[in-house]
Amino acid sequence: MSDEPYTPFSGGRSEPAKPTLVKRVWRMRHPRSGKILSCGTYQHPHGIEVRSGYQQETDLLWSQLVKSPDAASELAAEWKAMVLGKGFEEVME
Question: What does the pLDDT read at residue 15?
């Protein structure tokens, strides 16, 4: 038997790949803070990921995997309608 401690999670693990932005869908300005909330679609090993958050989605609020570009567009539109209903205003790039 070895005297070394059991460490099941040491070594051999690599950092997950950074998501690759496919398309920026929309950007909204918070009504009070002025912070920009954005939504984009990202390439993911298991499909397309729709992400929304502050600071280019790094401060993530929502994330969902979908199977098609049409499903991604529909989900992004639902999220957009929700934030517009909360008083956000669209930011044109």
Answer: 66
Q: Evaluate whether residue 3 is within a structural domain.
A: no
Alpha helices in 26-68 (DSSP H): none
Tokens of 11: 């070594």
Which residue would you say has higher pLDDT here, 59 or 1?
A: 59
Evaluate whether 82 touches 61 at the Cβ level (below 8 Å): no
Structural domain for 62, as ranges: 20-90
Q: Is 61 helix (H, G, I), strand (E, B) or coil?
A: strand
User: Quick one: residue 20, left, alpha or beta (phi over 0 = left, psi -120 to 50 = alpha)?
Assistant: beta
Our count of domains for the chain comes to: 1
**3-class DSSP assignment, residue 89:** strand
- Condensed to tens digits (0 to 9), the pLDDT of residues 20-45 reads 899 999 999 999 999 999 999 999 88
Beta bridge partners of 46: none
Whole-model pTM above 0.85? no
